[in-house]
Amino acid sequence: MVKAGYLHKAKAFAAALVFLTAGATSALAASGSLYDKLRADPQFSTLVQIIDANGMKSAYTSGSTRTIFAPTNATFNAIADNYTDYTDMLSPTNTSVKQNTQALLLYQMVPGRIDAGALKGKTRQVTTIQGTQEVIDGTGEQIRFGPVRYGALVNGAPIEASNGIILPVDRLPIPVFADGKP
Q1: Are residues 77 and 113 both part of a single domain?
Q2: pLDDT band for position 82 (50/70/90)?
Q3: Which segments within 48-132 are labelled E, that is strand?
Q4: φ, ψ of residue 66 in degrees (nearest 5)
């Protein structure tokens, strides 16, 4: 027969274990770098292929906290001219393609962890890691990163990482320069 004191201690221990496990689970959800999270999620396999082909992994594993507006595979598949230029580093024009692709990847990154929920009903001016001034607009039904025509809408749940957050987007965001061209 189990004594009442032992039963009480066992219940308290079990409750503490449940509490600690829940805390560890949420901590594990955010463990892993932005790169690790992208690599583990099949909807970003094309983006990871582009990151790897262009030597940009370090930008996603950096200790600096970042928010990534990450195009999904569906986004790349919808590009009319395809996206093979972003991954074919053996082409004769790969130097300029690589530089442009690297700049595009850095454009999709913003310093800090941006809480999409906190942006509802607001706009925020940011400077991307690439150096472009951009607007994140939360006044519509969906949060938009970048200009209306060349920006992208957040279309998925945020993915927490140890060094930032990933916001899936529906299009490939492209910066617009002073002459109005992407």
Answers
A1: yes
A2: low
A3: 66-71, 109-111, 123-127
A4: -140, 155
